[in-house]
Amino acid sequence: MKKLCNKCRIEKPLSEFYEAIDKRYGKERKIHRTVCKICDRKRKNEWDARPESMMLKREKHLKSKYGISISEYESLSKKQNHQCAICKTSTPGGRYNVFQVDHSHEDGSVRGLLCCRCNMGIGYLNEDIQYFTNAIQYLEQSKQLQ
Q1: From CA 24, how far away is CA 30, in angstroms rounded?
Q2: What is the mean pLDDT of the chain?
Q3: Do 12 and 81 belong to one domain?
Q4: What CATH code is carried by the domain that includes residue 111?
Q5: What is the pLDDT of residues 85-104, one digit of tens each?
Q6: Domain hosting residue 86, numbered range
Q7: How many CB atoms neighbour CB 56 within 10 A?
Q8: Which of 37, 103, 131, 141 is the most exposed place for a label (fewest CB within 10 A)?
């Protein structure tokens, strides 16, 4: 089966269109998007290249995930002297090279901003103070053996 792309106006096989779920009329059914994958990617890349696009995405992400605005994020960063709250580095690292919002997984409250490494460390130790205590004791003991 083939379908006409509404953007480039070229008839292409259905495999060249992303699948979507149509929830209209109270039923869910699989459909294929009206724009082919190539045109869809081109539109997305053009949108992502706009500087304001990144700001909008960041604002939406911070608001939906942590309940804070970009100005609140910047205020927190300034309060921490634009450094990680744990290791004090000014280089956040990670995919987007921005400090990550550290938050409690129990109640969602924001604790501060961390570099990628410190944020991952806390996550790997399940935010469990006893694990951190054990890790400190382990490091101190291993240092005494040297």
Answers
A1: 11
A2: 92
A3: no
A4: 3.40.1800.10
A5: 999 999 999 988 999 999 99
A6: 50-144
A7: 13
A8: 141
Q: Domain total for the chain?
A: 2
pLDDT tens digits along 48-67? 777 777 788 889 999 999 99
Q: Assess whether 61 and 31 both reside in one domain.
A: no
Q: Is the pLDDT of residue 122 over 90?
A: yes
What is the reported pTM? 0.64
3-state SS string over the chain?
Answer: CEEECCCCCCEEEHHHEEEEEECHHHCCEEEEEEEEHHHHHHHHHHHHHCHHHHHHHHHHHHHHHHCCCHHHHHHHHHHCCCCCCCCCCCCCCCCCCCCEEEECCCCCCEEEEECHHHHHHHHHCCCCHHHHHHHHHHHHHHHHHC
CA distances from 33 to 9, 12, 40, 143 (A): 14, 12, 9, 60
pLDDT value at residue 47: 75
Instruction: Give the whole-angstrom CA distance, residue 49 versus residue 41.
Output: 12
